[in-house]
Amino acid sequence: MKLFCVHERIEARRKLNSLSKEFFRKTIHICTAFVPLGIHFARIPVVCAVAAAGLFYIVCETLRMRGREIPFISDVTAAAARKRDENKFVLGPVTLVVGIVAASLLWDEVPASIGILALAFGDGLASLAGKTFGMVKIPLTQGKTAAGSLTCFGAIFCSAWLVSRDSFLAMSVAVAGAFIEVLPLKDFDNLLIPVLLGGIAQFV
Q1: How far is Cα 169 from Cα 156, in angstroms, rounded to an integer?
Q2: Which pLDDT tens digit goes with each residue over 26-41?
Q3: Angle, to 10 degrees, between the axis of helix 73-80 and the axis of helix 35-65?
């Protein structure tokens, strides 16, 4: 009985630690929602600043992998890293930056904003909802949940509609976004979501 209780406590702590890491990661994710506001007022300077931040991260992460810790940056990376990223180059921030920059340069302001907000809220909230409330797993998705997918759909639909005021466009983007999010793409959904959904918003 005591061993069972100890095991339960260890498992509860593990889940809490995993959830806190995910919350921290997705808080950074959701902060990218400020980028559309920036590109509205100063598109090129903001895109350059985001790209520069990405390059700075690559340098810091490369140094970290070689055993040279960078104050604050390495701590943030370690705090946000998933178990699968342990002792590896953490790729998520790189694909996040590339996705945002690509969407900003490829599409007009409104479609680019829709793609970036879909990444910020759709993908960001889906993971949190899945880890917190996800009881029903979707087969062949490496652990994705129905709660996460529904949250992703709702968040993308709402953000796309608020930007475009077009229900058909918002529905199209939300369906595509929920489909992409449920695929086991790991960190590459950060790249595909803003670019592909921005493209859909551009041409629908």
Answers
A1: 11
A2: 788 888 999 999 999 9
A3: 100
Q: Is the pLDDT of residue 4 over 60?
A: no
Model's pTM, two decimal places? 0.85
Phi then psi for residue 142, to 5 deg, are 60, 45
Position 138: which residue type? Answer: I
> Is there a contact between 79 and 21 (Cβ–Cβ < 8 Å)?
yes
Q: How do residues 85-139 score in pLDDT, each as one tens digit?
A: 667 788 888 999 999 999 999 999 999 999 999 999 998 888 878 777 767 788 7
Helices 146-164 & 167-182, crossing angle to 10 degrees? 150
Per-residue pLDDT, 184: 82
Q: Are 124 and 96 in contact (CB under 8 A)?
A: no
Phi (first) and psi of residue 84, to 5 degrees: -70, -15
- Asked if residues 106 and 199 have their Cβ atoms less than 8 Å apart, the reply is yes
